[in-house]
TrEMBL record:
Record flagged with keyword Oxidoreductase: yes
Protein's UniProt name: aldehyde dehydrogenase (NAD(+))
Source species: Chitinasiproducens palmae
InterPro entries the UniProt entry points to: Ald_DH/histidinol_DH, Ald_DH_C, Ald_DH_CS_GLU, Ald_DH_N, Aldehyde_DH_dom, ALDH7A1-like
EC number(s) stated in the UniProt entry for this protein: 1.2.1.3
Subunit architecture: Homotetramer.
Catalytic residues of the enzyme: E252
Oxidoreductase as UniProt keyword: yes
Keyword annotations: NAD, Oxidoreductase
Domain Aldehyde dehydrogenase, residue spans: 17-477
Amino acid sequence: MKASAILSELGLSTQADDGDIVVSSPIDGAIVARVRSHSTAEVDAALAAATAAHRRWRDVPAPRRGELVRLLGNKLREKKTALGHMITLETGKILQEGMGEVQEMIDICDFAVGLSRQLYGLTIASERPGHRMSESWHPLGVCTVISAFNFPAAVWSWNAALALVCGNSVIWKPSEKTPLTALAVDRILADAMAEFGDAPPGLACVINGGRAVGAQLVADPRSSIVSATGSTEMGRTVGVEVARRFGRSILELGGNNAGIVTGTADGELALRGIVFSAVGTAGQRCTTLRRLFVHESVYASTVERLKTLYGKIAIGDPLAAGTLMGPLIDAQSFERMQAALAQAKAEGGIVTGGERHAVAGCENGYYVRPAIVEMPSQTSVMLTETFAPILYVMKYRSFDEAIDANNAAAHGLSSCVFTTDLREAERFLSDAGSDCGIANVNIGPSGAEIGGAFGGEKDTGGGRESGSDAWKAYMRRATNTVNYSSALPLAQGIDFSI
Ligand code: UN1
């Protein structure tokens, strides 16, 4: 599928206009389209429209709100192929993963539809006679979603599907690197809304632009919830800014995810898990495996087999069948990778791979060989998240040492252990085990399903999105006490008789 065919299939203009955001494909560097940034006045108008839409949407019964998300899921099924191609074109991830990302959107829509009938509150035993206590959940307002380039559609859907069934309106500020995917999804949602019939105008929109646009959305008290995905540096600014006005933030920041291969691991399975997590999406997932701790008894064989597998990775055009690794997003990302590898060498690392890889017809794309770096100890480069396919590998002796090494990173997103020893597996998952939001056994740290809460601790920001009870972050909780007696007993037995 050519770029122009993908765009027209999704109803986007193929004509380059005078937009200030130039979108080029990381596949070959070719300009795909230009997109216009929104002005301050337009952002203000979007916030006003979203606020008004929320006031109408909160009165729509939640199961009916779920109907809109059901229709969205159906439209996504129809457009899966085209949207999957669009994601690949704009991010450079392989088509399997582009399609997988759309599937992730469909899955969260299904989840949210079910949820629309399950926004359960609680009943609470009151200490006073003739009183009833309960807890109920209510829509919050406008949910502003700031998403990153690497998951240009799924991250929005985790937030938007929940936010919509929870009775909120949604404003989406996508990465400047991937505005076309956002515009395509916005069109698909518009189709769903047209079929739905009476969705209020302004219920969902896309706002394009750079930092200034993002800052305006974040600072505005009408953004009741700001759900931001991106770097820790960005999250620190957004988190503080939203906290300053006592708004709610959901932060999904970086990850410096580790895996442990114990002496009892199923070697074949571990290797497959490691390679998918370290090399998939060209190392540009926040859940990418970046640090690997291998028990000394299996270290040499594991590293050797890993190097053999790395040598077989098909690198090239991500739209072509059989490719397992596409390009990095841009030149800057390539330079950061090279700088990290140079630092790793200076810190005693032995580097295999990591060099630029030529792909015929894609000379302007930044393709690299994935790198394995054998480290003598967990030095500063290893404790820094570099958004590229670099896997640092280190030997360990005791399992406690490996858990400490896992937890030594500033981030706390995802982690895993490969073991067939029940004690090791359970210890890794225990209170004294991995300190991450995601802890897995015998699968890699990436590629989570939508059913679980997604997010992590420490420098990852602490937010949770997607499954489990993540929906609660999109609603406000009210505790209700109803007195159905004709007396007025006070709590704690206080006597206040006049
Ligand atoms: C991200 O990289 O921001 O668990 C999200 C995973 C995917 C989502 C990654 N489901 O790897």
